[in-house]
Design a protein that fits this description.
By secondary structure, the chain is mainly alpha-helical. It has two domains: about 5-185, Growth Hormone, Chain: A; about 215-414, Growth Hormone, Chain: A (Up-down Bundle). The protein has helices at about 5-20, 30-35, 40-70, 70-90, 95-125, 130-160, 160-180, 210-215, 220, 225-240, 240-255, 260-285, 290-305, 315-345, 350-375, 380-414. Helix 6 packs across helix 14.
Length: about 425
């Protein structure tokens, strides 16, 4: 078996454990931590905002480190930071220390193990089947909430949140180091990627020259117009999802639906996202223009988001959420595959770090605007119209990118 598939499988497990014990289960710690420290719900939720803010600032640095010092070394640093952050927060009785760890240490774990670790490795091991491999690896992110959340919830009830954090820091931190040991940073001379029938033939990753594997500088990345197109597409397509989720739950609750049923919509979206990634993996990288496919997916995604406030009743909303989750599951791997095509696999982490900063900024703006628009109108129609419009801009940008690449191809063959 091509060793790249081992990278995908192990990488998916690493992302499942990373996301399923940090970002995906943050809400499980809100009540016990708030009760012990006497904090309001907003004060506890500020921890998540701190992690997002710290991640936005640190992302370009971690991404550049992944391309400069190899992704595996960054993943080792992420595993050590995971252990340090979990144990420190579990033992700390100082809120300022815990806040500093959440803002500065935890983002190194989340980014270093996922976007700038596993995803960077996958882009280096695959050229012809990059979109397929990225979509399969990304399933680990969704499985984090689906598989790990019930386990973490059970352990919290049995051990308490402090013992849980200390235990997971030691056990999972060591497990990360073991799994990273079995990974390799790049293909060797005998690692030849298999190319399925109907897939455009790409140069084997193992045959890349030293010039191919030398990462671009930040200035070189920022000098490419195509980078801004895909980065803004990712921001409009992915940075609005959090704002949509935050508005979705209260919108449904205001119709009389209980918290458990409303929260079930997030699970529906997660399961549908896995199905979307599996569908993208099945299609793979056959002779389909990824930019056009992404533009169509974003256009459909935008239309469905605008429709969310219209139907009455739980089932119609759940059906819309399922289709939105399905499309969203395929959008992220497609964005990452196009980003890797633009800058190359050995500059992917650096470019992804810069794009993550733009995504965080757009996400913060859309979250704020969503709240302001609801306060001004008293309803959700304008809120979801704003979010749908932002996603539609991403669809238009992908059409622009498709035209740019078509023009470049004609110039190269002329």
């Amino acid at each position: 078996m091509y060793f790249g598939w081992v990278v995908v499988i192990v990488g998916a497990l690493i992302m499942m454990l990373t996301m399923g014990t940090t970002v995906g289960v943050f809400g499980l710690y809100v009540l016990p931590v708030g009760e012990e420290f006497g904090l309001s719900r907003a004060e506890v939720n500020s921890g998540f905002a701190l992690m997002n803010l710290g991640g936005a600032v640190i992302a370009p640095l971690v991404g550049r480190a992944s391309d400069t010092f190899t992704a595996r070394r960054v993943m080792v640093a992420g595993a050590l930071c995971y252990a340090l952050a979990s144990v420190t927060i579990g033992l700390s009785h100082n809120l300022w220390l815990s806040a500093a760890v959440i803002a500065l240490v935890l983002p190194v774990t989340v980014g270093g193990m996922t976007s700038f670790g596993v995803m960077a490795l996958v882009t280096r091991w695959f050229a012809a089947q990059r979109a397929r491999a990225l979509s399969l690896a990304a399933i680990g992110m969704s499985l984090g909430s689906i598989v790990m959340a019930p386990f973490v919830g059970w352990m919290l009830g049995s051990l308490g949140w402090r013992h849980m954090l200390v235990g997971q820091g030691v056990v999972i931190g060591l497990l990360f180091l073991v799994m990273i040991f079995f990974l390799r940073d790049r293909p060797g001379p005998n690692d030849i990627e298999p190319v399925p029938a109907g897939t455009p033939v790409a140069p084997p990753a193992a045959q890349q020259t030293t010039a191919d594997t030398k990462p671009l500088s930040t200035r070189e990345i920022l000098s490419r117009p195509a980078f801004y197109v895909i980065a803004l597409t990712m921001a409009f397509g992915m940075g609005t999802v959090q704002a949509m989720t935050i508005s979705l739950i209260p919108m449904v609750q205001e119709t009389g639906i209980g918290m458990a049923a409303a929260a079930g919509l997030i699970s529906i979206m997660g399961v549908a996202g896995i199905l979307g990634r599996l569908a993208l993996a099945a299609v793979g990288d056959r002779r389909v223009n990824k930019a056009i496919a992404l533009s169509i997916a974003l256009a459909a995604f935008a239309a469905l988001v605008v429709l969310l406030p219209i139907p009455s009743g739980y089932l119609p909303v759940a059906a819309l959420v399922a289709v939105i989750g399905f499309l969203g599951g395929a959008i992220m791997p497609l964005c990452l595959a196009i980003l890797a095509d633009i800058v190359g696999p050995y500059t992917f982490a650096s470019a992804n770090g810069l794009a993550s900063l733009i995504i965080a900024l757009v996400g913060a703006v859309t979250i704020r605007l969503s709240g302001d628009i609801f306060d001004a109108t008293g309803g959700y129609h304008a809120v979801f119209a704003l979010l749908g419009g932002a996603i539609a801009l991403g669809s238009l940008l992908m059409l622009l990118y498709a035209r740019m690449t078509r023009g470049a191809t004609k110039a190269a063959t002329a």
